[in-house]
Design a protein that fits this description.
This protein is α+β, with helices and mostly antiparallel strands and about 725 residues long. It is built from 22 helices and 19 strands. It is elongated, with a radius of gyration of 39 Å.
């Protein structure tokens, strides 16, 4: 506990004043007496002081102690309580949803707190009424917005809307999945998404390409083409080939208003380009190899034209022609088979929840065969990338053949992960020694009265998968197993309990880089922030402790973008102490095989680019990052804000500025405590609550916030 000089002064001041009062009284009394009387009093009191002086001192000490206790209680009642009431009132004034004031102090202060709570309740009711009126007035706008969002979500292409500066204003889920693929580093670092509201598209697409496309559109618009657009192909830093269509957005719906931005339609054509390149290489190889065959056949045919050619020589030249024709026929057959395979594997597939596919397949099989199908052991979290119509048709075809061969077998569908793919099983019971899977795979499918030119093998090859028949060891039945591709997905963070780490400051948050000085004049509400947190093996970065997890989210235009997150476990390449596991819940097996910090930090650096870093007790996290600058090759030199320091400025009278205490004070529910992402999300909500309180104190810009934080008590601590 830190020494509070103010409280010590309050406790000691009454005793000191009492002692001074007694000394002054004695001095005045002696000064008023004549010399003879003064001598008489002195002679009389001297023996008493010698014999009973300690009793006088003890009497003064007890009086001073009592006065100090009374002063301390008076200070708590009329000094600290009003200050805390003022802090809580400021919170309530800035946020009507904040917790009500807790009455404390004297009767007057308690009555004042109740009156403030009543006023806050009336204000909250007025705000609710206003919100209801605004909601009713904006219902049509919200409907149009929802329709736009639904349309964007259903589009098969990746759509990104930009402003004139190239900043992202809107994107759909497919664009997010595409950008996640584009940002997936070879080391397997996930979550370093390049897309995000307010981010620049130039992190993926070269500015010169977009500027060139815009110039072409401007020239076409100048010639009267109001619906001009541009298309181009570019490569990403990781080697993906992206086809981009760019179209202008106008302020008016009649294509005559001023340009306000652009819409990008993006397609990853890397696989398609590689398939075409393979096909081109095959044709080139075929043409090169065929030249020698044609030359050999031409020479043999020329020799066969001689009438006096010996029979043995004629037979030899005819054999040359036959052999070369056979070789060419084999080459053409191989090329045709490869081309057919490429056509099938490039068939467009759609993402579908595996449970929905199993339910639809069961319904179709029941309709076709009359057999009830159980959906057992279906993993509800698996998303498949499939041609659902063709795959369900194949399952129904196999179920119908089983019904013909076995009568009425018991059928079931199962779905489970299998490495990077998934197993979809059509399970049936009953003896099946004579089933001809090969024949069923290669004959055209027909279910009911709907014939299909496809075979089951065609459907499997469309998915780049495999199909086989697997018998149960006890002979009770068998299953058809489809090996299918899975769609990309995300993993939700797992909450873990624990306790708070201590305040830690051996990193200078206030060292101004060129970037931070340029940002100091920007208003706090207009800045993009990356709010982050780390979980570590311990509290000593210089002593060998390492980062286990980095979690982050973004704030743009005063809104928390909880969907734009960075969440990555890190292999610390050292042991994890049991004491730390009790705090963050990260065990060695959870990080084994995960990317190293040298791989993760460049991805996090890209995620946090062009933003201000925010954290709670952030010097602790920054110390870990700065120690890894040389190993990772990246430097975090953007401005940094700490919610711990800002809270100490806004609420100087509070005893605790820990994350839990601040969240409770500001009415914020903390979920996933002591996971990096959970703490980052809680810190982001706290920071948003602090912004209006900073404005009330006249702290409006980033520079003012940094300067104010530097004056706080915690900023002066060094550990």
């Amino acid at each position: 506990m830190s020494f509070d000089r103010r409280l010590a002064l309050i406790v000691l001041a009454p005793g000191a004043l009492l002692g001074l009062w007694l000394l002054l009284g004695a001095g005045l009394l002696l000064a008023a007496l004549g010399p003879a009387d003064r001598t008489a009093v002195t002679d009389t009191l001297a023996p008493l002081v010698d014999s009973h002086g300690m009793l006088v001192v003890l009497w003064w000490f007890l009086a001073a102690l009592g006065a100090g206790v009374v002063a301390l209680r008076l200070h708590a009642t009329y000094g600290e309580a009003p200050a805390r009431l003022a802090d809580a009132t400021r919170v309530l004034a800035g946020d009507a949803a904040a917790p009500p004031l807790t009455p404390q102090g004297g009767a007057g202060l308690r009555a004042l707190a109740e009156a403030i709570n009543a006023l806050a309740g009336q204000r909250r009711a007025l705000q609710d009424d206003m919100a209801r009126l605004v909601a009713e007035a904006s219902r049509d706008v919200a409907l149009q917005r929802d329709q736009l969002a639904a349309l964007m979500a259903e589009l098969e292409q990746s759509v990104v809307v930009l402003n004139l500066e190239g900043r992202i204003l809107l994107y759909n889920a497919r664009a997010r999945a595409l950008f996640r693929t584009l940002s997936q580093a070879p080391g397997g670092v996930a979550g370093a998404e390049l897309i995000g509201l307010g981010r620049s598209i130039h992190a993926v697409i070269d500015r010169a390409l977009i500027d060139h496309a815009r110039e072409g559109i401007a020239r076409r618009i100048a010639r009267g083409d109001a619906r001009a657009s541009a298309r181009f192909v570019t490569t990403t830093p990781l080697g993906h080939l992206i086809q981009v269509s760019l179209a202008p957005v106008r302020a008016a719906a009649d294509d005559r208003g001023d340009l306000t931005g652009f819409v990008l339609l993006l397609d990853d054509i890397t696989d398609e380009y590689e398939a075409r390149s393979r096909q081109d290489r095959r044709w080139l190889d075929l043409s090169e190899a065929s030249r020698a065959s044609f030359a050999s056949m031409q020479a043999a045919l020329d020799m066969l034209d001689y009438p006096d050619l010996e029979p043995a020589d004629r037979e030899r030249f005819q054999a040359v022609v036959r052999d070369e024709v056979g070789v060419m026929s084999h080459r053409l057959t191989t090329l045709a088979a490869d081309a057919s395979h490429d056509m099938k594997t490039r068939w467009p597939l759609q993402d579908m929840l595996g449970a929905d596919l199993a339910a639809a397949a069961a319904q179709r099989i029941t309709a076709e065969t009359g057999q009830q199908v159980d959906t057992v052991a279906v993993d509800a979290d698996i998303w498949l990338s499939v041609d659902s119509f063709a795959l369900i048709q194949a399952l129904a075809f196999l179920a119908a053949r089983l019904a013909e061969a076995l009568g009425a077998p018991h059928l079931a569908l199962r779905l489970a992960p299998a490495g990077g793919r998934a197993h979809l099983d059509l399970v049936f019971k009953g003896a099946a020694p004579g089933l001809d899977l090969a024949g069923w795979q290669t004959c055209p499918m027909q279910t009911g009265d709907a014939p299909s030119p496809l075979t089951v093998r065609d459907v499997v090859e469309r998915h780049g998968g495999e199909l086989w028949l697997e018998h149960a060891r006890d002979g009770s039945g068998a299953l058809f197993r489809f090996l299918l591709p899975v769609a990309a997905g995300t993993v939700a963070p797992v909450p873990a309990p624990g306790d708070s780490r201590p305040a830690y400051y051996d990193f200078d948050l206030f060292a101004a880089s060129a970037q931070s000085r340029e940002s100091d004049e920007r208003p706090l509400g207009e800045i993009a922030y990356t709010v982050f947190d780390t979980e570590t093996t311990g509290l000593d970065p210089a002593g060998g402790d390492e980062i286990l997890q980095i979690g982050a989210t973004r704030i743009v235009n005063g809104r928390l973008l909880a969907s734009e997150c960075f969440d990555q476990l890190v292999d610390p390449q050292r042991s994890i102490p049991e004491a730390g596991i009790a705090v963050h819940g990260i065990r060695p097996e959870m990080v084994r095989g995960k990317p190293s910090l040298a791989q993760v930090l460049p991805a996090f650096h890209a995620f946090a680019a062009d933003t201000v870093l925010v954290g709670h007790n952030v010097a602790f996290d920054m110390r870990f990052l700065t120690l890894k600058e040389n190993a990772s090759g990246v430097r975090f030199d953007q401005p940094v804000l700490d919610t711990l320091l800002l809270a100490a400025i806004i609420h100087p009278g509070e005893d605790s500025h820990g994350l839990e205490a601040m969240a409770a004070r500001l009415g914020i529910a903390v979920c996933g405590r002591h996971t990096a992402l959970g703490d980052a999300l809680a810190t982001a909500e706290i920071f948003l609550k602090l912004l209006p309180l900073l404005r009330q104190r006249g702290i409006l810009t980033l520079g003012q916030a940094r300067a104010a934080a530097q004056t706080s008590y915690y900023a002066r601590l060094r550990y």
